[in-house]
Amino acid sequence: MSEPGVGIGLSAAVVAVERNAPEILVARASDGAAGLPSGAFEPARDRTLEIALRGSIAEQTALDVGYVEQLYTFGDRGRATAPHARHMVSIGYLALTRRPRNVSPLKEAGAAFRPWYGYFPWEDWRRRRPEVLDQQILPAIGRWAAEAPEAETGRDLPRLARARLCFGMDGRPWDEEKVLDRYELLYEAGLVEEARRDGRPAALDWDAPPRLGEAMRDDHRRILATAMGRLRAKLKYRPVVFELMPPRFTLTALQQTVEAVAGRQLHKQNFRRLVDSAALVEPTGQTEAATGGRPAQLYRFRREVIEERPAPGLRFGRG
Fold first, then answer.
1. Chain segment 67-79, per-residue pLDDT in tens
2. Whole-model pTM?
3. Among residues 223, 229, 187, 216, which one has the least CA distance to residue 10?
4. Rounded to the nearest 10 degrees, what angle do helices 220-234 and 179-188 cross at?
5. What are the helix and strand counts (H, E) for the chain?
6. CB burial string 223-242: b at 16+ within 10 A, e below
């Protein structure tokens, strides 16, 4: 009897920002489970992986996305709950778009934009340190780390050392780019729903596990974590933020969009100096009436900067 083959699946984290809130496009599978827009690559039908991905997104969400970037290939066994005749290797993508004004086609397709901090509530530091860190995550991680104070293999750091690096414990800085590292540590500790659903031994040790964000089907929250970390890093060396902006915008709106994605506040004057020194925008000569103040100048993305410098971005430091 021949072994089942390996299939290639394609999943996309489609990101938009609406009213200073980063959102992720969620589609419903045939079993009703929420996840990222996904589909299979069929070589006899699809000329390229990206064409297949765009077709799956359009079919499942009625949305034609703009910027698309391949993230990573996910091939672990045990990260998909639905039985498959063949093992599926999933290629994850990051896609950026602007939320359509008319969302009726999305609803008719069974898709919707959802706040991405609903899946990762510990990643939003814009207003304050997230309460879930001190109330639930760090006490549970501390208990889990204490169960194995030494490194479990010669290649690993001890659990507590890894937790300190991921979660900025004991005075260490919070690195907003380590989204995947934090999620993977929570998965390994059995503290997210996906670990319990996958039957991971660590998850079975918790009598009353915390509810840490919304779960997604298969390994889609892992793919989303990868996309978040990639986008946060890429803001600093590529002008990808303008894929999320309208053609004309104020500098305040630009800063709020960057903050929404990065998950932290930026100093207003420092941010404006960064934008000015990077020569990423130019004034349109138009203004927008600001409530309670004088009209704000409108800007547009200055596309020539892509040809002028190899890595044009907003080089703000880590939090």
1. 999 998 887 665 5
2. 0.89
3. 223
4. 150
5. 12, 9
6. bbbbbbbbbbbbbbebbbbb
Average pLDDT across the chain, whole number: 87
Residue where the block lists tokens 């420092």: 270
pLDDT at 47: 85
Among 200, 275, 291, 205, smallest CA distance to 241 is for 275
Residue 270 corresponds to which amino acid? N
Compute the distance between CA of residue 37 and CA of residue 14 in angstroms, rounded to an integer. Answer: 8
* Cβ-proximal residues to 118 (8 Å cutoff; 6+ apart), any chain: 213, 214
Give the rounded percent of residues in the chain with a pLDDT score beyond 70.
Answer: 89
In degrees rounded to 5, what are phi and psi of residue 234? -70, -25
The total of other beta-carbon atoms located within 10 Å of residue 110's CB is 14
Q: In angstroms, rounded to a whole number, what is the distance separating the alpha carbons of residues 212 and 38? A: 24
- The pLDDT assigned to 247 comes to 94
What's the CA gap between 193 and 220, in Å, rounded?
12
Residue that has been written with the tokens 């109330």 in this structure: 135
- The amino acid that residue 130 corresponds to is P
pLDDT, average across residues 180-206: 93
Strands 112-115 and 38-40 come out as unpaired
Tokens 């009209």 sit at which residue?
295
Distance from C-alpha of 143 to C-alpha of 138, rounded to nearest angstrom: 9
End-to-end CA distance of the chain: 55
Beta bridge partners of 297: 287
Host H or E run for residue 61: helix 49-61
Average pLDDT over residues 260-289: 92
For residue 81, count CB atoms less than 10 angstroms from its CB and return exposed for 0-12, middle for 13-18, buried for 19 or more. Answer: middle
